[in-house]
Amino acid sequence: QVQLVESGGGLVQAGGTLRLSCAASGNIFGMNRMGWYRQAPGKQRELAATIISGGSTSVSDSVKGRFTISRDSAKNTVYLQMNNLKPEDTAVYYCNMYLAWGPNKGDYWGQGTQVTVAS
Question: What sign results for the dihedral spanned by CA atoms 29, 33, 38, 39?
Answer without folding.
Answer: negative
